[in-house]
Design brief:
The complex is a heterodimer. Chain A is an alpha+beta fold. Chain A has helices spanning about 1-55, 70-75, 165-200, 205-215, 230-285, 290-315, 330-350, 365-385, 460-470; strands at about 65, 90-95, 100-105, 120-125, 130-140, 155-165, 330, 355, 360-365, 390-400, 415-425, 475-480, 485-495. Chain B has eight helices and eleven strands. Classes of the chains: A alpha+beta, B alpha/beta.
């Protein structure tokens, strides 16, 4: 369902995009916050060191955090791993004038930062093979800082430098931030799944409707029996069912009309026919053979009228807009046998021969209209072929998809082509007439057509309708073997062999 | 044979009645399905000709009810409807035969004769086509030979005599199936179904063999083969056909 796909994809992408932007913003904000925090940390540490210095300053001894091996070993005994000194955060130096008073183990002997600076500030420095963020804290011993006065570069000036490795800072910050951002990523995934689920569920009534509609046959107008909970679709289903109802009624009316018309037309014709028969019998009994001769044209006229009525009713019935047909699998061989059997009397009367050559093939289509189509075609062959002529009916089957040697032969269900060929040894039809013969009420020769042959020009029109209904093709040509007309009807569909 | 004709169209009923009575049948006529069912409950009719387009009730329903009560009463249905559709339905519901309006009277009479013979109410149990005579009661087949009078070659003798032709039981059945349905092609499958019951093994060319044997003793071209479709014996042309 593309609505679902559209909704899910759009929502998930927007969600991801916005969340990512938010995450990045958050990341940046957090980072600068973290920076501030670290700076604060440095300040605090510096203050501690300063305090430390003041405490120990009176002793005037050089206090440094253990650098000697003894002390290192001692520390090791105490469980402090000095090797990690470089990995623990801080390094510091306390300068009094030019003298290094206190320093941390991991700081060099020379000043980390230039001692010429006057004010407290932050900066980034390089020493000991790393990059550090350092605070430079200046404290005048006089404890009264007068920023306007020039820098006094004397032994009195107390400078405290505290530094923290930059990458350490960075790593720490990143850990914290990622811990904050990671849940957002998981949240995105969860939300995506939820969105998908909710949308699918929400669109389920629509999906049900689609399924119900696609399962309906094209000529099935029974109402949909769906229970839809949401208001929009309820309205749609109701409207659809109303439409179906009306269509159903319309087709019912058409069917009844056709049936009534058939009845009303054919019954009086039947009466006429029987009365003519009775008249003929009567005249014959009385030996009035001259009058008997007059009966024949009368009888022929009645037959002709019957034929026209039949064809018109059939034409109405096979109109592609009328959906009378039931699609199902039709066995061609018995169907053709029935058609030929029904027509055989006329064929025998003209001393014609007819042969049927076919495999057991099944066609998907409407049996009644296929029978009608075949009847019209073979009847034409019979009518327009002279006496002692020949009619050949054959069915050829070919598989379109022949590149599947490993195809499962049990199902034998593939796309195939079925060609029904009806050929005769008559006079055929001229090529320029090929298109016109399918016109309603057109018979070859226009107004000068051969009236001795019973027909009203609707046969091929009916055939064309039926061919169209089945989405097949009809091709006229000259028969190579018999010389007369060849009619080929090509069906391409999922063919099943019996 | 006593026939019940159920047809609502007056004109058609009268014409039919006239024609059938001329052929020797006794015909009772009713124009409503319900009346017909009532009549059949106490009737002595041998068969029914039923029009499907009745005004009071659907002809097929009448047929169903007839079948429910009198299962072996022969019924021929007449229909003006879409003939193919009602044909299938009619035969499914149990009709013995059907005719689409407008039909040939000869056609109807032929079907009636078949039913007559089956019921044994026929005045004669013989089917005669050209020179072949089939006796359905004695199961014998005769060939009519003209008796030639010596010395009078150009005078056609009216006298004929019968020569019996001997066929096996199965061959007789094949010939009977073809002659009873003269003018209508019988497919191999149809003939087989008349010869062999379920479970009986049929050789695929059994019918061909029977036909071959029949042809040896019958006139040329009496039995015709329509390749791919079946076999047929043509109906004799009568004097009064239209």
């Amino acid at each position: 369902m593309s609505i679902r796909r559209y909704l899910v994809l759009t929502l998930v992408s927007i969600l991801t995009l916005i969340t990512f932007i938010a995450a990045i913003q958050g990341y940046k904000a957090s980072m600068s916050r973290a920076e501030k925090l670290f700076e604060q940390q440095l300040v605090d540490f510096a203050q501690i060191v300063k305090g430390l210095h003041h405490t120990f300053d009176k002793k005037k001894s050089d206090l440094s955090f253990d650098n000697t091996e003894q002390n290192t070993n001692k520390k090791r005994e105490q469980g402090v791993n000095t090797a990690h000194n470089f990995e623990t955060s801080f390094a510091f130096q306390v300068w009094l004038g030019h003298n290094l008073v206190i320093q941390s183990t991991n700081s060099p002997m020379n000043p980390i930062m230039s001692l010429k600076q006057a004010s407290t500030h932050f900066s980034e420095v390089n020493f000991s093979g790393q990059r550090w963020r350092a605070i430079y804290l200046v404290n005048d011993k006089s404890s009264v800082s007068n920023s306007n006065t020039s820098i006094k570069f004397d032994d009195e000036k107390l400078i405290i430098i505290v530094a923290q490795p930059l990458d350490k800072q960075f790593l720490l910050a990143q850990e914290v931030i990622l811990a904050a951002v990671a849940p957002m990523i998981i949240a995105i995934l969860l939300l995506s799944l939820l969105i998908y689920g909710i949308i699918t569920h929400g669109l389920k009534p629509l999906h049900k409707l689609t399924t119900a509609l696609s399962n309906k046959q094209s000529n099935d107008f029974t109402p949909l029996t769906l229970h839809v909970d949401n208001t929009e679709l309820t309205h749609v289903v109701t409207t659809l069912n109303q439409l179906f109802e009306r269509l159903n009624l319309a087709f019912e009316r058409e069917r009844h009309f056709a049936a009534d018309a058939a009845h009303e037309l054919k019954t009086p014709l039947s009466v006429l026919k029987i009365n003519v028969h009775n008249l003929a019998q009567d005249l014959n009994d009385k030996g009035q053979h001259n009058s008997t001769k007059l009966i024949k044209p009368l009888s022929l006229s009645v037959d002709r009228m019957g034929h026209v009525i039949d064809q018109i009713l059939h034409l109405n019935r096979t109109n592609p807009e009328q959906i009378y047909q039931n699609q199902k699998r039709v066995k061609l061989k018995p169907l053709l046998q029935t058609v030929i059997a029904d027509l055989y009397q006329s064929i025998a009367n003209k001393q014609q021969t007819i042969t049927l050559n076919t495999d057991d093939v099944m066609l998907q289509g409407d049996e009644l209209s296929l029978q009608l189509m075949l009847t019209n075609l073979i009847s034409n062959a019979n009518k327009y072929t002279p006496g002692n002529g020949e009619i050949k009916v054959s069915v050829k089957y070919s598989s379109v998809d022949e590149k599947q040697p490993f195809h499962n032969n049990k199902t034998n269900n593939k796309t195939g082509r079925i060609v029904i060929v009806i050929e005769d040894s008559g006079n055929g039809i001229k090529v320029e007439e090929y298109n016109r013969v399918f016109d309603r009420f057109y018979r070859v020769g226009g107004d000068q057509h051969d009236s001795s042959v019973l027909g009203c020009g609707l046969g091929l029109t009916i055939v064309k309708h039926i061919v169209d209904i089945h989405r097949a093709n009809i091709v006229l040509s000259q028969s190579k073997s018999l010389g007369g007309l060849s009619v080929e009807v090509l069906f391409e569909q999922n063919i099943e062999r019996v | 044979m006593r026939i019940l004709l159920v047809e609502d169209d007056q004109g058609l009923a009268e014409a039919l009645q006239q024609s059938l009575e001329r052929e020797g049948f006794v015909v009772d006529h009713l124009s409503r399905g319900k009346q017909a069912l009532t009549a059949l409950a106490v009737s002595t009719h041998d068969m029914v000709i039923l029009d499907l387009g009745l005004p009071d009730v659907d002809g097929l329903d009448v047929l169903k009810q007839i079948r429910a009560k009198k299962n072996d009463l022969p019924v021929i249905i007449l229909t003006a409807r879409d003939s193919i559709d009602s044909k299938v339905k009619g035969l499914d519901y149990g009709a013995d035969d059907y005719l689409a309006k407008p039909f040939d009277m000869q056609e109807l009479l032929a079907r009636l004769r078949v039913i007559e013979r089956r019921l044994g109410t026929a005045s004669s149990s013989m089917i005669t086509i050209d020179r072949v005579v089939l006796d359905t009661s004695s199961h014998k087949v005769f060939l009519m030979q003209p008796l030639s009078v010596k010395g009078q070659k150009d005078k056609q003798s009216d006298q004929q005599y019968k020569i019996e032709v001997h066929f096996s039981k199965k061959e007789f059945m094949v010939l009977k199936a073809l002659m009873e349905n003269a003018g209508r092609i019988q497919s191999r499958e149809q003939i087989e179904s008349k010869l062999y019951h379920w479970g009986e093994e049929v050789l695929s060319n059994a019918v061909e063999v029977h036909i071959h044997k029949l042809r040896k003793n019958l006139p040329d071209k009496f039995i015709q083969n329509v390749r791919g479709v079946g076999y047929i014996i043509n109906r004799p042309q009568t004097n009064t056909s239209n």
